[in-house]
Amino acid sequence: MKAYKAMTREELEELKKELEKVYEDVKGKGLSLNMARGKPSTEQLDLTKDMLDVLDSKADLFTEDGIDTRNYGELTGIREAKVLIADLMEVDPDEVIVFGNGSLSIMYDTVAGSMSFGVNGMTPWNKLEKVKFLCPVPGYDRHFAITERFGIEMINIPLTEDGPDMDMVRDYVENDEAVKGIWCVPKYSNPTGTTYSDETVRAFAALKPKADDFRIYWDNAYAVHDLYEDDKDVLLNIMDECKKQGREDMVYQFVSTSKITFAGAGIAAVISSKANLEWYRQNMTIRTIGYDKVNQLRHVRYFKNADGIRNKMKDHARILAPKFKAVLDCFEKELDGLEIGTYTRPKGGYFISFMALEGCAGKIVAKCKEAGMVTTGAGATYPYKKDPKDSNIRIAPSYPTLEDMKEAASLFCLCVKLVSIEKVLEDK
Amino acid sequence: MKAYKAMTREELEELKKELEKVYEDVKGKGLSLNMARGKPSTEQLDLTKDMLDVLDSKADLFTEDGIDTRNYGELTGIREAKVLIADLMEVDPDEVIVFGNGSLSIMYDTVAGSMSFGVNGMTPWNKLEKVKFLCPVPGYDRHFAITERFGIEMINIPLTEDGPDMDMVRDYVENDEAVKGIWCVPKYSNPTGTTYSDETVRAFAALKPKADDFRIYWDNAYAVHDLYEDDKDVLLNIMDECKKQGREDMVYQFVSTSKITFAGAGIAAVISSKANLEWYRQNMTIRTIGYDKVNQLRHVRYFKNADGIRNKMKDHARILAPKFKAVLDCFEKELDGLEIGTYTRPKGGYFISFMALEGCAGKIVAKCKEAGMVTTGAGATYPYKKDPKDSNIRIAPSYPTLEDMKEAASLFCLCVKLVSIEKVLEDK
Hints:
The structure is a homodimer.
Chain A: H1 9-28, E1 33-35, H2 42-47, H3 79-89, E2 96-98, H4 104-117, E3 132-137, H5 141-149, E4 153-160, E5 163-164, H6 166-175, E6 179-184, H7 198-205, E7 215-219, H8 238-244, E8 251-256, E9 268-271, H9 274-287, H10 293-303, H11 306-335, E10 341-343, E11 352-356, H12 361-370, E12 373-375, E13 392-395, H13 402-427
Parallel strand pairs in A: 1-12, 3-4, 3-6, 6-7, 7-8
Antiparallel strand pairs in A: 2-9, 4-5, 8-9, 10-11, 11-13
């Protein structure tokens, strides 16, 4: 394969004509493909459908300590659900609060609570002149939407192969009191698939924040979401590292079963120090009498222990891995050597990240759309939806069928080529 | 029965000695009774235990319009859940958003959203000098806790037999721009059991608020929670009345199945105008990808329609009514004629309200506690936990067994008598 920029203007024009013809043909097919959101497929959701059988009208709905899960109460979650999460995440059950479905709302409530009431009794952020969050980029659009909604200034931090640029993080966190948080997806990061190196995790734990109410928002969304049994990333336990530094109040860790059981009906949890959890409890007790404990019990009875979850993740991997492979095989075949973009090869998580030539992402997404394929919007992976280089595109292979995914990947490559030719021609 | 104040000092001293002996005997029993919270009993929770059978691993988990309830999405709830709630509450399904378990968190998020972002694009309340809420008293402690948490000034409004004193409400709402809301439990009010009269509901709808962002928080928690099939209170439909006045944006109505199915695992909803619901949607979309739709579907499949719910409520009444009767029979037998307190005789809901002689509520509660019985804290039914007359005590007959309830009522009357004798003696 010859790099586009090594081709003559005439060669490029010729190629462009050919590809445009192919594109018109594809458009004629009236496709309807969606690579936009990290949604589990129906096949994946069916993996845990039998979870609905464990609690029926004959079931004992009381917890081990005699709590009726159907009734009010148990604000911080039932004990055995804490044990399940603690077992999985290698923390103490007393460091866990179990909520309802979805960890996003826990993160939202954490920011909202900090804005209105302050962190652990400190000044409410809405009384401060300025609050800033560090945002490793590319990152998760819904994180950025929360901080944007509350008027928190977001600062881009480049994500390297080892995680966020820790020199830059340290510089901000240790010198700017307005910096109150950093959004992290430390394992199989959304959208790059990056797992933070041990050195990065240790560097996080070693931070000496200027602001006492600085917190690391450790969204461990893909903690057990490996694609390959024999080739997994391993993330260092941030709680352990923070404890070594005597800074266990510095991190909130978020997890959920949204991509383990049901995306819309899982259970979510926060893991943090006892002091931090007491602050959560004080905020929660005004907002709710308790989360859905029946569903917590359903999860516990179904999985029994962390191994139950880990085993189920192997079934997810069997469905997901071929879809990732289909995309990567296509990219390799169609794009390698053309020098018109790079892409990640994640070992887990839900996304592949494509970095197009500068200024091309928006046009590629538009071209895909014109031919009937929806991808995540260009810019979505950056704060304020502004990708400074207009380069990153997030690809979510999970939801479509394998066949659709192959077709989608192929169309994507075609659009990348077409837009890149124009870019290379312009630059000539 | 002779009124205490008509008795001589000697008669009272004599009676006191007798009752003190009885009290010491009761204390010796080491009772453990709880009349504190409006929790359904296990027997009630068992009424809908078979709801757990309607969705099993063989069930179709898709909605009528083809949504997989297990997956992400459908932020405002599944269509058929909206239809179920709309059917029950006699509104349009487009006027309903269905959430997760518990309406309290919807109310909290409503206040929180108004504080941070303003109502329908108006000035965020946290940018205002002062925000006030009207609080019909006695009322629901958890309502008051929300507004207190956000530093909203609460103003007591006396609750009459017809609902809140509407002259006072009108005066505040129509003249004070800082008044942004009023907490209402319009049917079988917590704790008095009062149902607002048609005139009161119409007066609410006819309000011409000084503040455009004034809203009525219509917590219709006991909408179908009648105790007696042949003697129900009927509440006028506030949405209909507001529409007649062209003020349908003025009310948020909250409902849930917490006291219909499972207290901790029901579904909750807000009913409001389309403009207001669009504001909810904008706030929700940052906080969550969607609530638990599997549980929404479970409720719909179980009840099928509003009649399904209404029929189930008859079973609840069969369990609850005897407990209310036990308390009221005891009060009648033990207290009527003594002129040491009044009590309500609600036709539904979860509470009986006792009004002790001024200055006696705290002492009665303490005396009950000393003998092993927990009641709702004195003052809890007032903003800032301050009952100006220290008179109201909320009694929750639902949770204990009928036998325990009888014992509890009897002990309560004994404590009322003892504390009242002292009060009457002091006043002599």
